[in-house]
Structure formats: structure tokens, C-alpha cells
Amino acid sequence: MLKRLRENKSAQGTLLATPTLLWMVGLLIIPLLLTLVISFGKRSPDGDVIYTFTLDNYLRLIGYTKDCDNGQASCFDPLYMQILWRSLTLAFNTTILVITLAYPLAYFIARAHPKRRNTFLFMVLIPLWTNFVIRVYAWMMLLRTQGVINLVLGWFAGLLNIPFTPLEMLYTPGAVLVGMVYEFLPFMILPIYTSLEKIDTSLYEAAADLGANGIKTFGRVTLPLSMPGVVAGTILVFIPVMGTFIVSDILGGRQVILVGNLIQRQFLDARDPTFGSAASLILMIMTLIVTYFYTRKFGFGEEIIVA
Amino acid sequence: MAAEFAVELRDVVKQFTTPEGNQLKAVDHVTMQIKNGEFFSMLGSSGCGKTTSLRMIAGFEWPTEGEVYIEGNAMGHTPPFQRRVNTVFQSYALFQHLTVFQNIAFGLEMENAPKDEIEKRVKHVLEMVQLTGMERRKPKQLSGGQQQRVAVARALVKVPDVLLLDEPLGALDLKLRKEMQLELKALQQQLGITFVYVTHDQEEALTMSDRIAVMSKGKVQQIGAPVEVYERPANQFVADFIGESNFFEGKISSLSKDEAVVFVPELNSELTGLPVSQGLVNGETVTVSIRPEKVLIAEHGMNQNTFTGKVMNTVYIGTDTHVYVDLQGKRVKVFEQNRISRLDPGSFYTVGQDVILVMMPENVLVLKKG
Fold first, then answer.
1. d(CA A232, nearest CA chain B) in Å
2. The pTM is what?
3. For the segment B302-350, what is each residue's pLDDT rounded down to a tens digit?
4. Cystine design at B102: which of A96, A171, B74, B98 (Cβ 3.0–4.6 Å)?
5. Contact B281/B254 with Cβ under 8 angstroms?
6. For residue B31, which of B195, B230, B213, B238 has the smallest C-alpha distance?
7. Interface mutation vs chain A, best among B18, B60, B164, most A CBs within 10 Å
8. Interaxial angle between packed helices A114-125 and A79-111, expressed in degrees from 0 to 180 and rounded to the nearest 10
9. What is the ipTM of this complex?
10. Model confidence over B127-173: pLDDT tens digits?
11. Residue B85: closest CA among chain A residues belongs to which residue?
């Protein structure tokens, strides 16, 4: 038996994959199926699930509601569609901003002296040692009306004798964007760095040798060869930003509600797991669709692992 | 009018700082003049400064002192993309994200050449390196030899004044390397472009070059045609580095215009009638050298330069048999060509056998020390 296993590579593979497979089935597939079932159910008055088959939760998500002001039986309320759209655009903007910030830094680190690279990478990773929530709270301290930024600005205004009203930065979409960018920056820097660092310097020399100046070398050689890193980073940033609720909860308050917050509130505050499940599945499908089209065009960035 | 020299290095020094903080002269006052249309090789072991010299011609490095001239123009700090030279890299440095066609077209696109002209020239150069039909492949889908051809084509399509080649055949197996040597040489003759070729392989340099610069420790030891470098090495380093040599320490005991006599204490004898090279002084200590294939094992000796020794060992290597002879405690290498079949064991010298060695005066070199 053992001897046969030693000779059979594919059986070895199956054996090695089994724990993960069991984990995935038990803790991902089955809960996902449960979510699906619940999303078609009904909320009982005391917040339990009544298992039936109704599309009400999905209809509510796309704006059909029975909760009308003017006494009608049903009306259209785009609230949830707005939340979905807001999440999508925020994830998109965050990703773009993160790429613009991460690329130059990754480029700088990749071109730095090999001895210093590790120090720089270490510095990129240091924030990750602090708890996610605490880091977001730190931004609250910076952004709020009596926060550090307003304090410094007010001090300068006082020096220059300019009247100063503290800026309202917290609980704005901008605050959420800043928080998201900050939280997810390292996840873009690292893959871009990896793909840049792997480019053989002789390729830059070859480009220069063939008549390309710095800008052309970057556009024709550096950027295309580092795209796998950008793609991998985009996947690592876009998907979590779509679903996270902590950043918008702390920095957006009631002003900036994302799908993540919606889902969280359905489960914890509104105690409507059926509607929460439906929203979760819609979020997942949206993310899947975006990722599908994105990876079909650009791949998964797997080259940075394989090549 | 074309300049006299395609490339000229005038008293060039390149100094690097080592990781330990020391100053290292990778290239130490090198002067060389490479003629138009010449196949010029820089030959030396690793760290001799040949690649650094080449990189200074390409513009990847700038000299610490001295000046590089290309077609008579001082290069100063001219960046690589403004020099009319192109490089074939040791690692090929092909763009993996581009096809063969795109790789070769890269340099022409940088010149903003019209599309149909690019197509025509790429097609032409692909024919030249026998890669027609491979246009749409990615470099990864090619063999090592094919990748090497793409690297050559990519540089040649620019029609440079000078083509720089940095150990371009180093990664190929022996048989393919020999083939490519001849092909590159034929290509160079056909195009008439100046080739500057860096290699550590002396046979390669001898096979391909019009002239060779033998380098060591950042300095040029000798520049000359293959025959000169092999038959008239300028010093002991060159005699030792190119081919093999037997060396004896000696002292000039008499010197005339045409011939020298050197007393060799190791052999307790004089070597007479030796050719005289410039700068020799009577009474000077010198190194005497003779190539193993030029030492003859004779049945009868001559009046001069004849010695008797004992065979220590024989090694059969196919084309030759190497015979090691003990000459009064000094080991002398003798290479004999296997002009007859060696199937009969009796055709070999036996260990301990007495043999007569003759060193014809014209084959012995007198080299200055140091």
C-alpha cells in the first residue's frame, strides 16, 4: 500500500490536497450553499429564517420595495443599487490610486541597491504588524474636526492671522478612499516589486543599445514586463475593497455605506439574515463578473510566480 | 570620409569601487585601435577587463580616465541609444514579451522607420540568420541557438558601424558553437561591419579574428593577428595563456644581431641560434619558451639544442599523443600528432625509455622577464 503510494504521483497529490479540500468543502462550499438557501427565505418577525422560496430579497436589492411613504403597495427605491454602485466605483478608484502610488515606490525599491531593498520592503510591511482596525482608527485621529491635520492647519492659520474653520474631512467619501488606499497599498507594492525586480538589467541595456531612451524603455520594456505584478496586485486589492466594511464604518460613518456595511447591518442590527445573504451573493457575483472580465483580458499575473 | 579607425580606446581607465570599499582598476590604461571592417577579439580570462572595455564602447559604462572614439568621434558621456554601435549580449537579453519579429523590429521602431521598411529589413535579416518562418514565435519557444540568432539579427538590423559581441556563443554546446563561429565569421565578411568580439575561449578567438587583443588584469598584453599571437607571443603570459608552452629560466650568454645564445641552468646547457627579438640585452635573465608540438623526439640528435631524457608518461588524446619527458628533473611536454594508427601498443613510447629531444632554434622564443 505504502509502496504503491510512493510510486503513484497523482495519488500523492490527492493525499496532499485532501486536508485543504476538506477545509474548503466544510467551511466554504457548504456555508455558501446555506447562504444561497437562506437568501431565498423570509425573515420571521423575531429575526429568524423561514425557509421558503421567494425572490423578495433580490427584488428589494434591485429597488422594488413594499415599504412606501405614500401608502402604495410597492414603489421603486434605488438605495441598494446606489450602495452597490458606490462600492464598485470606490473599489475601482481605490485600485487606480493604489497603482499610481505603489508603482513608483515599487520601481524605486527594485532599482535600489540590493542591500537596501530588504530594508525598504521591511518598511512597507511594518504597518501590517498593527491591527487593521487600529490603523483605521489612527486615520480617524488624523482626519476628525479636532484631529491632527486640522490642528496643524489651524496653527498655521493662526500664525498667518487667517480665520480658520476646521475642515470636515471625516465621514466623507474622501476619507473612506484615503483609508482604503492606505490599507491596501502594501498588497500592490509587493507584487509589482516582485515583477520589476525579476527584470534582467541587461534588458534595459538592450533597449538603450537599440536606441530607446529612458521613457521609451519604460513604456516598451519595463511596463509590459511588470504588468503581471500590476494584475496580481489589482486582484489582491480590488476584491477585498469591494467587500470590506471596517474602513467605511469608521471613516465613513453613516455617510458612506458600502455593500459590506449593508451586509453587516443586516446580520447584526436589522437581524435580517435573508436579505443579508442575498446581498452577500450579489456582492460575490459582482466581484466574480468584474474579476472574470479582468482576468480574461490580463490573466492572473501568474507569470510572476511561474516565470 | 570614414575615420581611420572604427573604434579607438585611448589610455582608458575604468575604476570600480568593490563592495569592500576598495578601488579596483578593471581596465588599466588600455589603448587599442580597431580598424574598419575588422574582426577584432578581446581575449582573456574572467576579470581581465575585456567585458568592461566592450561596455565602455557600447556606452553602458563611462571611462574614469581616457577616451573612447567611435568612427573618430570622442564619445564622452554619450548614452548608448545615441551611439551607432549595437550589442549582442551574452544572455541574449531578448524581450520575452515580444515575438521574434517584434524583437528585431524594436530598434527600427526606435528610429521611427516606416512600417513597410521595417517589415522589409526584418525579413531580410531573418533570412540572413536563417530564421525565416519564426517571426511569430516568442523567444521562449526557440532553442538556445535560435535565440542567439535572434540576438544577432536584432543588432544587425540596425546596420551599426560596429557590432559588439559579448561572449555570444558561451551558452551553446561545443558543436553548435563551432558552427556559429563559422557563420558569424562569414556574416561579418559578407557585411563588412566591424565586429568587436569578447571571449575567454582562445580557440574561438584564433578561429574567427583578424586581430586579437590578449588581456590580463585590466591591461593589454599583446595585440596581433592570430598567427603572431601564437607564434610570437609578446611575453610569458601570452605564451602561457594561448596554447601551451614549456618554459625555462635562462640568461643570455651571447647576443648578436641575428641570434642569441641562452644558458639554461635547469638543463645545465646552452640553447644556441635563437631568434632575437627587440629590446634584449646581453647578460639579461630571460624566459625561454617552446611549444610542446614543436619539441621533436628524434632518433639522432643534432650538434646543438639536443637533450636526452626519460619518458615519464604518455597520454593518448585522439588527434595527438602527449609525451611527458623528464629532462634532468625538469618535466617537458611533447605533443606528437598521431599520423599513424596507434592500435599497436608498441607504437607508444614506454615509460622509462630514453628519448632524444630536439628543439629547433627557430621554434624557441626568448621572452623578456616580467
1. 17
2. 0.83
3. 778 999 999 999 999 999 999 999 998 899 999 999 988 888 888 889 9
4. B98
5. no
6. B213
7. B60
8. 160
9. 0.86
10. 999 999 999 999 999 999 999 999 999 999 999 999 999 999 988 89
11. A209
